[in-house]
Amino acid sequence: MEINSNQNSIPIENSIHIENLNTDNNNNNVTYKMYISEGVGWVGSILVLIPYVSPFSNTIDFILNTLGASGLFVVCVASKQYQSIVINAAWIVGGIYKYIFS
Q: Where are the domains of the chain?
């Protein structure tokens, strides 16, 4: 097998450096996604708890509970927590039902 001298070759050190750089970038993306997911979960938890502390109208109570349960639902789907997915889906559907028919 003949090697063409017109082709440029990349030293192994450079390719390793590039691979490490890409790995670090992927790790940063995973870290950011984790922080966003945690943030959505915490905001959802707080939104669900706020109506229990302060008296609000039915509309505000419905909005806070639905947004909070939706945030928790998204986090549970992302982390495949099936029991929490079911309870948060029920919380959302029950809240919508109660708001429309009460």
A: 12-101
